[in-house]
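Action item from last week, closing it out:
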Amino acid sequence: MKIGLYFGTFNPIHVGHMIIANHLAEYSDLDQIWMVVTPHNPHKEKRTLLDDYQRLHMVHLATEDYPKIKPSDIEFKLPQPNYTVNTLVHLQEKFPTYEFSLIMGEDNLNSLHKWKNYEYILEHHAIYVYPRIADGEGLPELIQQAQVSKIKAPVVEISSTAIREGIANKKNVRPLLPEKVWHYLDQNLFYR
């Protein structure tokens, strides 16, 4: 079974995340996409995050009508901050017959050389890269790696930060969120 791992804090999950995940579920050789909810990304401040289980619940709400897209709380059980390489090693031990690949935007590929043990990741896992309007220059040789596949997915520039700010400023951000996620946020007055 080929699993694509789409990591994120999903604070909140939005339609951009779902467009990319569904595109890969339908137009790649991956059997499933696992939306891995990251409790603490080492490159982000934790103070702006909703509770881990609230974010996981939103991913459940967003994905329940998509049989090939599954929420994952695998990083909840691992030491924090979460490093992708540790998660990959843990998953490979837990599911030895599965083949795990990473899904990331071009902007993340550009900073991959800053990740813990990124050489190990490149050596042992395929990486599916979706287009972004990237900031700055990365390492052009990374995109040339045999295990890095650039996919022709829609370019989606929606940010969770902008959604949180919009909600705080009483803007209508409803079109940017899966319907059930919008209702959950609205009922709980999150990000206000």
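Closing note: The CA atoms of residues 40 and 46 lie 6 Å apart.
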